[in-house]
C-alpha cells in the first residue's frame, strides 16, 4: 500500500467501549510520535489518552491524516461520520480506515479526495499485487507470534519485542498483518482479507529476504486450533518461514473466541503442532517462549502461573505487560 | 451463485494444449447431458469430444450458455474472444467463465448482457455473502478428498465417488470447490478465491446439515504440505467436518506442483497429519482409502503399487480411472 502519512488525528466519534477503538488506541500506545490528537463527538466516553482537538485545530498543527479509530461489529462506515470525512478531505487530510466497508466504494468520498489531492486508505484491503507462495529459503531471521486462540496478545507481544530488540541495537522490524498493526507500522498487509490462494505468498512479500542478522518480528493472527481462522494461521506460519515462534495465550478464557464450548488447546499441544507445521518451510522452527495475558488474575497468581509453565516447558514464560519481554529477547540475542 | 443454465456450448478457441481446456473437458466428461457441443476457432488442435458447431447452430438447438472452457496462465480474458462473447449475448446466451479476470469488470459486456437479459457468471469469484466458520457439529455424513499435492485427482475422485454412490441409490451430493467442479455441478464455491477469513465458513455453507444418511462428497483443494496452498487446505478440512477422508496422490511426481526441489510427503505422513488436524472439527475423522493417479506407469506396475500400499496401510488403494472407485464406496456402505 502507499505509505500512510503522519501525524494522525484519531477520530473516535461517540464511542463508549474501550475495545471499540482498538485501532486508535494501538496507534496512541505504540506510535505516540505519529498521533497529534483525538477527535471526539458529543457522548464519547473513552479516550486514547491523546489531546482532544477539533479538526481545524489539528490541521493548523500539521495533521496529515484522519484515522477512523474504530473496529465496530460489521465493520461498516457510519453515515453520521460522512460530514466529518468530507470536512477532513476539504482540509487536505488523507483518511485511513481499517473497516471492512471501503472508503473507496463511496463515490462522494472518492470525488472529494480526487479534487483535494487526498488519498483514501482502506488498510484492511490489500492493495498490493499478490502472488502464491513458494516456500524457498530466504536470508534473515524471522520470529512469528502464534496463539492458543485469537486476541491473546500477538500484536502487543510482537511490538514489544521489536522495541526491545531495537533498544538493544539489534536490527529488527515489526511486520504488521492486521489493521491496527498496519496503522502503527505505517504499512503491512491484513492477511485475513487476502484471497485465500495468496495467504502464504503475501507473508513472503511482507517479510522478504533481509540481512543475515536482521529480525523480522511478524504479527501472528488466529490460531491453528480455531475452527474459523486456522487456514489463515497456517498460511501465515508457512509464509513466515520463522526461526523462532512465541506462543501467546490468555489466562482464564473458557472457550475460544466467538465459539461456544470449545476449550483452548494446551500450551504443550500448541507448541507441538505449530513446530510440526512450521517445519514445512523452516526445518529449524522452534518455540522459544510463552507470552501470557494474565490480566484475569492478580500479580501473585500471574507470577505463580508463569513459573509453573517455565518449569513444565523449560522456556521463558512472561506477561509482556506485567513483566516485559526482555527475557524473550534474551533468547534472540545469541 | 445463481444457477448455471444448460445446455452449454463449450468455447475452446484456438487451444493447442489439452490441459488448457480443463474447464471444458470436465463438463464434457462429467456432465455430457449438459453439453450440446464445442465452438472451435481456426488453429484449434484439441477437442472435448463434443460435436463442433457454430454459435448460431448451438442457439438454434437450444443452447442456454456459452462456457469459456479455458484455464490459461494468468486467467485473463483474451480480447480476441470479445466479438464472440458479444455475439453470444446478442443471441441470448449467458456466459460462464472460470477465469481470474471478471466478465463483470468489462463494461461493454455488462451493458450487452443487461440489454439482452443475459447473465455473466464469474464462477471463480464467490457471489454469496460469506461468514466465518464455527465448527459446530452438523448432521449428515461428509467425505473430503485431500492430497499429497495439488492436481492429483481430487475432483475426479470426488465426482466418481458421488456417481458410484448414486448408482447404488445411496443419497449423495458432489460439492464443488473449484471452477471446473462448479461447472459440472452447476453450483459451488471456488474456495481458493474467498477472502481468507471465510475459508472454513464457506465450506460449512457449501455442505450444510443434511439427512443423517446423506453423503456430501466434497472436492478438496491443494495439500496441507504445499507451501502456497496449505491455508486453503486446512480451512477446507476444518469446514468440511468430514467423517471420511480419501488421500489422493500422483505416482512419479518428483516435486510439488510449481515448486522446485520439494518432494511430496509420504502417504503415511499425509494420512497422519490430515487425520490429526481434521479432528479439530470432527473427532471421528478417518482416512478410509487412497486414490492414485498411476498414469505415469503401466498397468502391471500400477496394480503392483496399489497392492503394496494396501498391504502397508490396510485400506483400499485404487486408481479411480484404471480401477474405478467401487472399493472406496464399499467403505461408505456400512
Automatic annotation (TrEMBL), chains A, B:
Pfam families: DUF1611, DUF1611_N. Gene3D superfamilies: NAD(P)-binding Rossmann-like Domain, P-loop containing nucleotide triphosphate hydrolases. Residues 132-328 form the D-glutamate N-acetyltransferase-like C-terminal domain. Residues 54-126 form the D-glutamate N-acetyltransferase-like N-terminal domain. It comes from the Bacteria. InterPro entries: DgcN-like, DgcN-like_C, DgcN-like_N, P-loop_NTPase. Transmembrane segments: none annotated. This is EBNA-1 nuclear protein. The lineage of its organism: Bacteria, Pseudomonadati, Pseudomonadota, Gammaproteobacteria, Alteromonadales.
